[in-house]
Amino acid sequence: MRLSKEPLFTAKVIQRRVKELADEITRDYGQQELVVLVTLKGAIMFAADLCRALSLPVHLDFVRAKSYRGTLTTGTVEIKVHPEVSLAGKHVLVVEDILDTGNTVAALFDRLSADNPASLTLCTLFDKPSRREIPVPKSYVGFTIDDHFVVGYGLDYEERYRELPAVYTLDGNPE
Ligand code: XMP
Ligand code: MG
Fold this sequence. Notes:
binds magnesium ion; alpha/beta; globular; single chain; six-stranded mixed sheet; three-stranded antiparallel sheet; binds xanthosine-5'-monophosphate
C-alpha cells in the first residue's frame, strides 16, 4: 500500500470546509447546547477542529463502535465506549470520519436513539455514497468522494497515517 503523491484534500481545503460546516451547524442550532459525540478514533482531528469553530455551547463526549463484516449478521456493531453523558432530551451531533456502507452509523443511531435525545444528527467529514448498503438520515457532509480508501487527518490504514494534516488516497487494495 502506498500513499498518493498528492493529497486528495490539502490541510487548507479541509480547514476551509470544516469552518463552513461549523457555521452551518451554529446557524441551525442557534444557541442551544449541543452534545458532540465523537466516534473514536478516526473522527478526533475533525471533531477537534469542528468544535473550536462552533459558536454554541458544546458538551463533548466519545463513542466507539466496532463493526464486524463478512458474517451473516452484516451490520453487527458492538459499542466499545459509551457516552458518559445522558442523552435524554439533548440535541446530539454524532461526528464521524467517513460514511461508507452506513452499517456503523445505522446501528449506532439505533442504540443512541433508545436514550431519547431531543434530536440525533450525523456530521461526517467524508461520504462514499456509492458504497451505501443501508439508508442514512440527512447529514452534514464535508466532502462526497468516490470509492477511494482515504487516510490522514485522523483516518488510518492499520493505525498508520492518522497524524497527517492532509488526506491522501491509498494506492492498491487495502482489504
Ligand atoms: P460503514 O461501512 O459501516 O463503515 O459505513 C464506516 C467505517 O469504516 C471505516 N472506513 C474507512 N476508514 N478510510 C478509513 O480510514 C476509508 O476510506 C474508510 N472507509 C470506511 C471507518 O472506520 C468508518 O467509520
Ligand atoms: Mg471510524
